[in-house]
Design a protein that fits this description.
Layout: E1 7-12, H1 16-27, E2 31-36, H2 39-48, E3 55-58, H3 67-76, E4 85-89, H4 94-102, E5 107-110, H5 115-127, E6 141-142
Parallel strand pairs: 1-2, 1-3, 3-4, 4-5, 5-6
Helix pairs in contact: 1-5, 2-3
Length: 144
């Protein structure tokens, strides 16, 4: 990837307003976002992609195929091993956090409450050092 190439995020979220806000916030960081409405579409896009995304953001509670199912499938494909998977959900359930960490997610983010916080969150995501693909447990849950 060259310096002029924007980072690419693939976002799976069933809420169209959340997808639109995320895309708008990401643009301020020169991040290109492709979004899908559920896990079925996410897996179709990933499996057919010639150029893989730099990050995958997964909402947990989606119709047809949820985020945990997608995470499990993603981690079973060696082609996707180097893509950080970030859980991006309204859930702050300890069980969801523990489950997704054990399943190989790299970061857990509870959806921010404001557009300003969302922009800050995206900026922090793109600046993180992703060389260690599986985050240390104490760094797994992101907070502003």
């Amino acid at each position: 990837m060259t310096d002029s190439s924007p980072l690419r995020i693939l976002l799976a979220d069933d809420d169209p307003d959340d997808r639109e806000l995320f895309t708008e916030a990401a643009a301020s960081h020169h991040v290109a976002v492709e979004s899908v409405a559920n896990g079925v579409y996410l897996m179709e896009v990933l499996l057919q992609a010639e150029l893989l995304p730099d990050f995958i953001l997964l909402d947990l509670n989606m119709p047809e195929k949820g985020g945990k199912e997608c995470l499990q499938e993603i981690r079973q494909h060696s082609r996707f091993n180097n893509i950080p998977v970030i859980i991006y959900s309204t859930s702050s359930s300890k069980k969801d956090i523990e489950d997704t960490f054990a399943m190989g997610a790299n970061l857990y983010i509870t959806k921010p409450n404001s557009f300003t916080e969302l922009k800050k969150t995206i900026g922090n995501i793109v600046r993180l050092d992703w060389t260690d693909q599986q985050s240390a447990r104490e760094l797994f849950v992101y907070s502003i």
